[in-house]
Write a structure and sequence with these properties.
The complex is a heterodimer of chains A (132) and B (400). By secondary structure, chain A is an all-alpha fold. Chain A has 5 helices and no strands. The radius of gyration of chain B is 21 Å and the shape is globular. The chains are: A mainly alpha (132), B mainly beta (400).
């Protein structure tokens, strides 16, 4: 007696996955994330910037190492990346110019950051760019 | 012969090169007539050095022509020894959507050597070593007034890294196994393309391999992998270091395959991973679907993961979502065309933190050991008003 192979649930799974993906893309435009370096480092700069060929501990492109909170904060503040070029312009920190590709190639060049992330970093910089 | 010489020329150019993460081609599961990754790879979860079966498949079913054996079949290695290499040379054109002109570069991408020593029918040692990649030199930031600070390492010796090295007990092709050493804990679709969101944002980006103890069971129609992992100790030298968030934790992967006489075969998998670092933790789980439609020569691959990231240092947690949905078409032997959609939602409560990627990839295998890959990738980020970026990449790949 030959038992038929179990039926593949592929098409149903595809539809379910597509529905889930569409739903999960939703959300509020309100950003309640903390503008703290401890959060920014762990959730934005480390995964997006500290990749192996860029600002990881082993590569340290342009002397910038963003692989953890302490080193990343030192790298950004030590070289003036978070210093406002124009004290009256809250968007004038070099790191913001780089992330927004103003007069430079974009950072990160491979997967650009959402403006919401850059705004969060801008808020942190304008609050003093502390290692908080 | 001319094609063989072309392959060797590509290899010669590439050997000056740089490493890229080696993983696998999950697109070949089912589509090549092989139902499980470990049939073609020595690793029980796939990836890395291919076995004699995999070499046969690479010549007989994947490439248009040629002998997939070591050195094109010119040399037969003793059964206790397996050797291999991956060499890639690539050209990219990246348009970041900003004011700067698109950037182009040609660069050696990967130069990895693999070896496997079998001590008995059950025990083996796997060693891999290569040269860490470098796509672009430092160009400084003159436009922002910061100047050129160049800390780049420049020698091949400085970039040497061994991403995988492990001892394994695996008494037979199916059944239980255990291994310990450095490798990725089995999780996800395990693409070779590290740019895919399901690798980049789940702890599986380039050179994020951990020290791992893994065990499980590989059967004909199911497999289970359970792993515990930790990052390399900070005291380890650079060649043994990894990048990423330095998490310790565990991972589980279970795959059930649906194989038989049906023209549609495939698999579903469930997976979970916990990674805890000094100031954050990630709790993630997901599902995977694979379906091969033989009459149409179409393969569907899909993965969706939910991630709970808890940033303890900031007393804040957020939920993330990452997915991949791809369709690969194999119109003739040696040609694979893939379309894919990727989604990464960095924070599910903030709608403008999403990223989308649309990929078109053509893989050509004109002769055993040789591959050309053309990848076009369009990415949209955040709000609709943010400019899209795009990437065009051509890779020439030779494997020994």
């Amino acid at each position: 007696m030959h038992n038929p192979p179990p039926m593949l649930p592929g098409p149903r799974l595809v539809l379910l996955a597509a529905a889930v993906a569409a739903l999960l893309g939703c959300g509020s435009a309100t950003d309640d994330r903390p503008a703290k370096w401890s959060f920014i480092s762990a959730s934005i700069t480390e995964p997006s910037c500290a990749t192996v060929n860029c600002h990881s501990a082993v590569a340290q492109k342009s002397g910038v190492d963003l692989h953890d909170r302490a080193t990343g904060w030192t790298s950004l503040t030590k070289y003036g990346f978070t210093t406002l070029a124009d004290p009256n312009d809250p968007t004038s920190a070099p790191v913001l110019y780089l992330m927004r590709a103003r007069g430079s190639i974009r950072m990160p060049p491979d997967v650009p950051l959402p403006e919401a992330d850059i705004n969060l970093i801008q808020t942190w910089i304008n609050a003093g760019a502390n290692n908080d | 012969m001319r094609r063989l010489l072309l392959c060797l020329l590509v290899a010669g150019v590439g050997t000056v090169g740089f490493a890229r993460g080696a993983a696998a081609y999950p697109q070949f599961q089912f589509s090549s007539g092989t139902n499980k990754c470990s049939q073609c790879h020595f690793s029980p979860a796939g990836t890395g050095l291919i076995s004699s079966w995999g070499r046969s498949e690479s010549g007989d079913t994947i490439s248009m022509a040629g002998d997939g054996g070591f050195l094109h079949g010119a040399v037969t290695l003793p059964s206790w020894l397996a050797l291999g290499a991956d060499i890639r040379f690539a050209g990219v054109r990246n348009d970041d959507g900003g004011q700067a002109a698109p950037q182009s570069a040609w660069f050696p991408m990967q130069a990895d050597l693999y070896s496997r020593f079998a001590f008995s029918d059950a025990f083996s040692l796997y060693l891999e070593g290569g040269v860490r990649g470098e796509t672009r030199p430092s160009s400084g930031f003159a436009n922002t007034g910061i100047g050129n600070i160049n800390y780049d390492f420049s020698t091949v010796a400085d970039r040497f890294i061994t991403r995988e090295h492990y001892l394994m007990w695996r008494p037979s092709a199916t059944g239980p196994y255990a291994r310990v050493g450095r490798f990725f804990a089995p999780y996800g679709l395990r693409f070779v393309e590290h740019v895919y969101f399901v690798r980049r944002f789940t702890g599986y980006n380039l050179y994020e391999e951990t020290y791992t103890a893994s065990g499980g069971y590989v059967g004909d129609d199911w497999e289970l992998h359970l792993s515990a992992f930790t990052p390399p100790p900070s005291s380890f030298p650079d060649p043994l270091q990894s990048v990423g968030s330095r998490e310790s934790g565990g991972a589980a992967y279970y795959e059930k395959r649906f194989i038989g006489e049906s023209p549609v075969v495939g698999a579903v998998a469930v997976q979970a991973r916990i990674g805890v670092a000094s100031e954050e933790a990630r709790y993630q789980g997901g599902v995977i679907g694979k379906a091969w439609v033989e009459p149409a020569k179409l393969l569907f691959l899909g993965e969706a993961d939910l991630i709970r990231q808890q940033v303890t240092a900031a007393s804040f947690g957020q939920d993330q979502f990452v997915s991949y949905s791809g369709l690969s078409w194999f119109p003739i032997r040696g040609l694979m065309a893939s379309l894919a959609y990727e989604r990464f939602q960095e924070n599910m409560s903030v709608s403008t933190t999403g990223r989308n990627a649309y990929d078109l990839q053509i893989n050509v295998f004109p002769y055993a050991h040789c591959e050309a890959v053309l990848l076009g990738r369009l990415m949209t980020v955040g709000q609709a008003s943010q400019p899209a970026s795009n990437l065009l990449m051509l890779q020439l790949h030779y494997y020994l």
